[in-house]
Amino acid sequence: MDFSLAKRNKKLDQWILISLIFTLCLGLNYFAAKLDLQFDLSKKSKYSISQESSVLLNKLEEPVEIVVTIKDRNNLPKITSKFLHDLKILLQAIENAPTKQQIRVTMLDVDSPKGPPPYLTEYKINDPNLIIVASKSGGQKTLFRYNSEGPTNPYDTGTPFRSKDSAARQAIWESEFYSDWKESYNGVLEPTKFRGEETLVRAILEVAGKRNVQNTAYFTNGHGEKSPFDFDKENGYSELKRMMEDRNIKVSSIDLSLVEKVPSDASILIIAGPKGTFQDQEVSHIRSFLNNRGGKVILAVDPVEELSILDRPAFGLRPVLKEWGIRCHDMLIHDPGNQNFDFFSGAYILRTYLKNNRSKVVSQLAEMGLSIQSSRCRPVEAFTDGSLDNYRTIELLFSSKSSIGLSGWTQRKNPPEINPLLDLQGNIPVIAISEKKESRESIFIPDGKIAVLGSSNILSNKYLTQNSGNQLLGKNLIYWLNESTEMFEIQPRVVDSFTISMQESEFDKFLYAITIVPGVIALLGIFVGWLRKEL
Q1: By three-state DSSP, how is residue 391 classified?
Q2: Which helix (H) or strand (E) holds 253?
């Protein structure tokens, strides 16, 4: 027998076997790349969206673009890196979901000289640190906006110091991608639930779902109201306008005395700080918009100084408010407690909420202990009677226990004496909301809602830009007015959090433990190698 030939054939067989195995691996990889199948074997289906989201996303009527302009860098704040990690997992799951219309995710570098891909040029996205959902006919909606400028100068006494981590944490908190923030071991608030799926699915449906022709918020004018096109840092309403436009709501203005009815594309009517009374025709337009068309109204009114309009309480809107179970007193809330005013700005601080049965508009505010800042306020009460069985009315925010609701306040002395027959005593409600409900099983429907604020400054530029509580309240009011009940079925995901806390001595012991074992094994290996060589 020729052993050399057998040895050569054996080597040839081995190489043929290796070639076959290599070819099989290539074929399997090619087949797997072409086959669009995914199996999520992770705990709680971490890498796939819920069944409720899949059903909703199959209602899309056109393709959707999700654009993220946040750079994934090593020097990002810790909270931002965590946010990007959770977001990328979710975006991959949404992009791979079996939907009738394409959902495409693009991580865009706006600083790149190449420019954006051709399919994104029409959206004109030039700013960094944004998350945008867009479609061709539905426009675009900004879900996240973050100013990545460096930390403020700690030696500049004119500007409050803000670190990069603090600014990033606030931006992520305001975006509502996370909820249930709790204090960690080092005193910093950390999120415990990720609501990104609900937030993204809602935005996708708004821009590419069934088209809603009623998608414009109209600010009334002609009565001295505040304007959404006023960029004044104190009293303007341009910040509320921006918040609405970020949520794909168009903003316009209207004089109700010059039209026959509220325009058909109106979804929200905003009356911000009127100084004159509404005439009967205008009141009729508002009543018809609320009752017959299921409209939504935000009414922000200030205490009245002019005696000439006291003959028509609440600027002529009292009959409409009464129909919805809200009473807006022509009073001034007086508070003698200095602790209820901001030391630097003089703003009045409102931080009292209902202990039970809170509305979701303020539940997060109450849980996090956030306050609302304002200037002068007037009482806004909710009441019930037999004619209001089809309405749910609830008070959201209250003044302090020491406050007083002064009637005829322009004629009162300072400090005022309490009139037990005419005055109100704290806690006095400042914000109330009301919505209709179906008679069938008492299910509340989104048609017909009204929110009444006892101060127009709560939503002004000054407080929306300076106070986190006012910002969250404004966003929650917008969400409440435009909510979709089917979105409540999407449950938040629990955030995985791992923390190691140890003293320096414990860390030294841990370091020794993880270095001794590999060292001993290495020495044993060297000894065994030397021993074999010697033998």
Answers
A1: strand
A2: strand 250-254
